[in-house]
Design a protein that fits this description.
2 copies of one chain form a homodimer. Chain A has helices at about 1-15, 20-30, 85-90, 115-120, 125-150, 155-170, 175-185, 190-200, and strands at about 30-35, 40-45, 50-55, 60-65, 70-80, 100, 105-110, 170-175, 205, 210-215. By secondary structure, chain A is of the alpha+beta class. Chain A binds a DNA duplex through helix 8.
DNA sequence: TAACCTATGTAACCAAGGTTACAGTATGAT
DNA sequence: ATCATACTGTAACCTTGGTTACATAGGTTA
């Protein structure tokens, strides 16, 4: 009960303008609060998805994997988002097509699949939320496609750094070249090369284990 | 009325197992039948979308555009599909993010946006259809991303040809190297080069204005 | 302090595919 | 038949980014 009332508090913070009061109460009742630490895996490719995450705090990165097991960052989710990908899997009873990893310490509510269909019929606000999520995710996928298909690695790297700054709300990024290389599906050498170029152009400052973004 | 009853006939052919009888009747009432010829544009980027297409016959290709105005094929839609992209735009009152062009002569029903929300609340079958469409489109977008991010041009070309054969139900493809280059967002020279390689390997037979697929 | 591990910098090389240029060929129009 | 046009084949060259190899630097641990 204490748990439940604390959840309502958190929910009201970001979702009170979106969901009806009764819906928020239902969410607090059936949902379970979950905290994940930075770097922790939330969903793995091939896993069956039995609950849907609703993001309260923090951020999550969504990744795709190739046959060699190498990754590619698709997009970030932050507060107020849900993963339409997961949602899609829930409804279709299918396995996850993506991997989700906490970009930072994150707080989320897990909602059991069974409620999806029920709430979709019952609450207009839920319906809208779901449709909007789908819309956002499709848009983000298009963005990902644009980036991969139309941009060179240097531009992709710049966007990546900008995105990180925005998501993490800091301009000193705690990240190694290798980690960036994984996210962008390229090699460490390539990233080091391009980062050095950006540094020479005065856009960033390189340090061991971190990158200071100056003017991107 | 003749129009309407003919529409019900067409609808029953592919959607009777999916939609309730009353829904099919409603669709026939408010929808308008539309025929488009091969190559004709159905939706353009930046246009406001005021109706949603339901595919009865034929096939449509969905394209994305870069800043230079060059295209990239995302996926094909065929009978029984709807464009979740469009759907998404309808609900969000936003402009189209994609271009849709008839891959062959195509018959579709256009449904006014206003009905979306109404039917979503009213018909479970419609809700499922919409969610399934979103699911398919997300899956196809992931597929597109995999293809672009993880495959070389020769593999992409092979997949493209295979897809075309399946969609068009023929193995003599009426297409020029330039057209393929547009769809794959590359140059004609590259396509000619790779096609020649495929021919030498006995997988296809090249002719002017057409490609015979032998064994891909 | 020495040994060790991880991160970074850089050179040299390679492969994929984009670009330019031009020749040859089929097709339809005049 | 001549011409114009669209399509195809191919060579030569360039750019991007992937690979290998190795040196150096910072930080940790024995």
């Amino acid at each position: 009960m204490i748990e439940s009332s604390r959840m309502i508090e958190s929910l009201n913070e970001f979702y009170s303008g979106i969901f009806e009061k009764e819906l928020i109460e239902e969410i607090a009742q059936v949902g379970t609060l979950k905290r994940v630490r930075e770097g922790e895996k939330i969903i793995e490719i091939g896993e069956y998805v039995k609950s849907m995450p609703l993001l309260l705090e923090g951020a999550i990165k969504i990744l795709r994997e190739d046959k060699e097991g190498d990754e590619l960052l698709l997009y970030f989710l932050s507060r107020g988002d849900t993963c339409a990908m997961t949602l899609s899997c829930c409804l279709g009873q299918s396995k996850s097509e993506i991997r989700a990893i906490a970009e930072m310490d994150t707080k989320l509510i897990m909602i059991p699949v069974e409620k999806m269909e029920e709430w979709t019929a019952k609450y207009k606000s839920w319906r809208n939320f779901i449709f909007e999520s789908y819309h956002s995710r499709l848009t983000e996928m298009l963005d990902a496609i644009d980036t991969i298909a139309f941009l060179n690695m240097d531009e992709r790297l710049m966007r990546y750094l900008q995105e990180k700054v925005k998501i993490n709300q800091v301009d000193l990024l705690q990240v190694t070249h290798q980690e960036i290389a994984y996210d962008l599906h390229t090699s460490r050498v390539v990233i080091s090369r391009l980062l050095k170029k950006l540094e020479r152009e005065g856009m960033i400052k390189l340090q061991r284990n971190s990158i200071k973004v100056i003017n991107l």
